[in-house]
Amino acid sequence: MGSPGVQQSAGTSRRKFFRWCVNGVAAAIGTALAIPLGGFYILPALRKPKVIWKEVGPVSEFTEGEMRLVPLKPLERREWPESWGKEAAWVLNQGKGKFAVFNIHCTHVGCPVSWSSQANRFFSPCHGGVFDPDGRVLSGPPPRPLDRYEVKIENEFVYAGPVYRVNDRLERVSA
Amino acid sequence: MKLLQQIVAFLEDRLALPTIWARFTDRQIPKGVGWLQTFGSATLFLLIVQVVTGIFLAFYYVPSPEHAYESVRLITDDLNFGWLIRGIHRWSASLVVVFAVLHLLRTFFMGAYKYPRELTWVVGVLLLLVIFAFAFTGYLLPWDQRAYWATTVGTHIAGFAPGIGDFLIEILRGQPDIGARTLGRFYAFHTLFLPLILFLLLGIHLFIVIKQGIAPLPDRKLVPATREEYRQYYRQAKQEGKPFYESMAKDALVALFLLIVLIALSVVLGAPLEEEADPTSTTYVPKPEWYFLFLYELLWWFPGKWIPVATFWIPLALIFVLIGLPWLDSSVHRHPLRRPVVTVAAVTLVGFLGLLTYKGTVAPLPPTAVAAQRAQAEKIALSPLALQGLEVYGRGGCSACHAINGVGGVAGPDLGKIGRKRSADWLRRFIQDPVSVNPQSSMPAYKELSQEELEALVSYLGLLK
Fold it and tell me: What is the DSSP string of B71-130?
């Protein structure tokens, strides 16, 4: 008959062993599920959407200095699930063949900005953000100028591409 | 009757159900438990209402951008009782926030988050966060303008989280903008994932409520200093109390009353559904639901590089303070007057949040929102002359100083009821030369208006009653 201490420690180590087994198997099952499930949830969201250029309109349709809200027509049909939703942008013919195409979302919390031709300003309806015709912040809380679309002009026709951010000097800072 | 007895006996033998139920309803609860303690059960009732009506809404709702709006319209306008089910779901969503917060305040002021109920409090705070998550995800599902723009703003705000903002936006939306994947995610969270978390946390919350018993009223003079003293104090309070089934009657009455309120709200106000979501609209003025208004108002205070303070740090601090409260206030005193610092801090905070919410509710929209108002007004049948007047109103910049129905500036008086107060002749004279009518007026004279423009403007203003 061994001492109770020995028996107990033998029991404890046996108990420990089985606890480790159960915990180990549980961890393996958890990991095996978590990796594909997490990847399934997160990775598709991080995919960069295929760049599709959009028609803005013929250069001749835009009077110099006039800001217009223009629906953007994608050059190729977007596939489901990206197929839903129309898109519009503020377009300004800056003269000398240059165009600025602005995202309609205020850079503060994303409310849609409207253009007032009398005031020559963009206004956001939510927290009083005001932008000038170049998209620079004139007053209110927005942290940066209005985001812009890449622009290209081919055969006297204006196209808009991906949206990018600019800093206070209107230099491109990110895609 | 005999059959019923047999069934009860069977359940007793196999499941011990009658015994468990009797233990549940007959347990003693401390003296002083009254109507204020029904806030918790009211919250529970509203959550059950949400789950039940939500399940039934899911029979007809289609979570895809192509069909979501139409399916909600079908539910609201066409299906039998659809307006009622959706109305109850919509109003219960608001009431559940009201009662969860009342329940939290009651618990706070009675010191019921202290030993041995710290964990009940923590789980309760987590439940409140789950309720907010339900509110945020459910808001998108009708896929109307309000839904689309509130989610645009809500997810945009997540982008200010330091370091992980852009990542967070994409994870939340499932794509760069808001579309099919966003709706799918929000639907799955709202109807599958969150209810699971809700049941889990509710189970823990209610289990501790029964295990530790309902908190007694705090006594100003009798302050148990140790845990053992507290246990004794509680046993005493329970002995002087009454069985639970007596207060259950109160809970049941409150639940019935709430259901009547929900039905009344659905009948009188219904569940609103705006135009279908339109990402190209530049005249829509997004405004969050009232329970998120305090955060939205806070944004006025932190411009530019300070935005994350309002969108990230303050909400995070609030959550941590709430969760950590039992340890931040670990004194033995439970009566609110015996822990004045904590009480004053809490009253100040609640008052401040209330004030922000109130400000957000009544604040006139900025003058720039007037374009949206115009779009709205054009849908009401205005005469051609009055419509022309509305144009003059916009061109003249009237909205920079005046509000109509809460839309516009605050420098001048609100013109919402001007047509009732002033005659056309008075308006005509005043607009052309305000000082001649009222020497105190600071409004600039609009002499340059043509006769036609003036008549149009007066015609429009005359309709504002």
Answer: HHHIIIIISTTHHHHHHHHHHHHHHHHHHHHHHHHHHHHTTTTSTT-HHHHHHHHHHHHH
Do residues A4 and A59 both lie within one domain? no
| pLDDT over 90 (residue B127) | yes
How big is chain B, counted in residues? 465
**Which of helix, strand or coil describes residue B141?**
coil
CA–CA separation, B1 and B415 (whole Å): 71
- Is B395 in CB contact (< 8 Å) with chain A? yes
DSSP line for B250-317:
HHHHHHHHHHHHHHHHHHHT-----SBP-TT-SS------GGGHHHHHHTTTS-GGGHHIIIIIHHHH
Both A42 and A85 in one domain: the answer is no
Same domain, yes or no: A43 and A58: no
In chain B, what is the greatest distance between 2 CA atoms, to the nearest angstrom? Answer: 94
Predicted structure pTM score? 0.83
What is the average pLDDT value for chain B, to the nearest integer?
90
Show the domain range for A11: 1-47
Residues 6+ apart with CB under 8 A from A144: A107, A137, A165, A166, A167, A168
pLDDT band at A114 (very low <50, low <70, confident <90, very high): confident
Which one is predicted more confidently, B448 or A110?
A110
The per-residue pLDDT for A1 is: 44
Highest-scoring range by mean pLDDT, A123-127, B296-300, B313-317, B412-416? B313-317
Tens digit of each residue's pLDDT (9 = 90 or more) over B49-85: 999 999 999 999 999 999 999 999 999 999 999 999 9
Dig out the tokens for B436 from the structure. Answer: 């001649």
Q: Residue length, chain A?
A: 175
DSSP state of B395: H
What angle do helix axes B194-212 and B38-58 make, rounded to 10 degrees?
Answer: 160
Rounded CA-CA distance B103/B3 in Å is: 42
B254 residue type, one letter? V
ipTM of the complex as predicted: 0.89
- CATH number, domain of A151, equals 2.102.10.10
pLDDT of B407 higher than 80: no
The partner residues of A57 in beta bridges, in order of sequence, read A158
Of A46, A84, A111, the CB nearest to B170: A46
pLDDT higher than threshold 70 for residue B345: yes
Tell me the pLDDT tens digit for each residue of B195-214: 999 999 999 999 999 999 99
As beta bridge partners, residue A68 has A91
Going by the DSSP 8-state scheme, the letter that residue B230 receives in this structure is H
Residue numbers of A between 95 and 154 with CB closer than 8 Å to B: 104-105, 108-116, 118, 123-128, 130, 140-143
**Record: contact A81-B181, CB cut-off 8 A:** yes
Q: How many domains does chain A have?
A: 2
Q: Do A110 and B171 touch (CB under 8 A)?
A: no
